[in-house]
Amino acid sequence: MRDLYQRLALSPSANEPEINSAVARCPNSALRQDAKAVLAIAERREAYDTLHDTVSDIGRLRARLGLTHGAHWQGDVANDFSLPPDNAISRHDELVDRVSLAVSLYNRWRRWRGPWLLISTFAAGAGIGLALGFALSLGLSLG
Amino acid sequence: MSIARFSPFELLLLKSRSQVDTATLLLLAWVLVHRQHVSEGQRRRRLAQVTAQFRHGHELGPVMGIAHSQDLQAIQLAAEVVRKECSKERSLSVIHQAITVATDDGEISLANHYILRFLADLLNVTPSTLSTLFQELTGKPLLPPEDPSRDAYWQQHDPEYHARQAQEAQAAERQAKEAQAKAEQRQQAKTDKQQQKQQKQQEKQRQQEQARNAKARAQRDKEQSHREKAQQEKARREQAQQERASRERWQQEQARQEEARRQQRQRSSSPPPPDRKTRALAVLGLTPGASRTDVRQAYRRMAQLHHPDRFYSESDHQVALASARFQRIKSAYDYLMQTY
Fold it and tell me: What is the pLDDT of residue B192?
């Protein structure tokens, strides 16, 4: 399995005229023939594209998990679909971080009696609003 | 740190009674999604069947949903969990389940070839272990995946394509012909009426001609008897002439053959040099009629093969031989580049 798009310097979403011109420009006759047989025929291109998506997903997964030199990842596939190692942190660590943050927030909420705090804040806000409104109405009636 | 919401799979993992089981479930669902010619219900039933002893304690529906959406982050998370928490036996059993799910009674799909190998790499299963396991479970050896990026694959799997194209082209031609035929019929209908008129006129003419012909035949019969006598005399004269001509031809041929023999003798004593261009082409391993690019390619190839630097590590004699060969190739190439 080779990445024909990469070898022809195309994007996987290239349309037909782009593919045809790239194929015509390609100096390697074997690659040209393969590209003509695969990409120029709509059904075959569709089948190829689905597999291409899956394999490039696997290439990305391998890059993130540090498996780009695995024993089962050799030859054309490894040459064409390996990506440079990703610096994204491990998803599991991220999940653990997120859970611990959620837990600490929850704990703080419980420690400060969250519901009562909320109610008292709301009451204070309402009182200030009432006082302001009273003062405004007094000012209007006097003026 | 970003405060993104928990994704569906993360929630599932947090709620699960056994994280490894949930993660394995997602990986198996991923394999199942890439199996072909299977309905959605069959996939779910198969997943439930395989994971009967799992202790995850949640529904399978959301897992299948996540696998269908090809959520790469969820799959990565599952892979990390599985890698972190699987013992050696457990990882073998995961591979075992993945193989059965990928192949039972059917062929393994191309995508699953790559997914299985990814799982094997993830779980530290060597290629030999994987292939023996596969052989035991399915009774077939694990072949390297076929390559749909090559023409050969499609010639094997889609051989009727060109036949179909040809048929379609033929059908199109037939339609065009029928359309033409209809147009012609219409024209003929118009012309038929005109022709009928013409035919009547022609019949009258024919009757007149027949009358004339009958008179002419009587005259011809008399003339033929005279002509036959004259022809017999001519034939005798021609035979005599042909004999003389054949004698002359034989003499000429002998003279020609002698000349050819003389020329051959001359050639063998001093063969005329074959075209220098042909010789130069032969040095480069080409036949006459090669283009300039062919010459250049052949020269590059030969120069790489016979460059004296390649024989540096071997004896001086080898280097000398190589440089002589290289000189010959280079001069041939230079000559060809001048003339072409």
Answer: 82
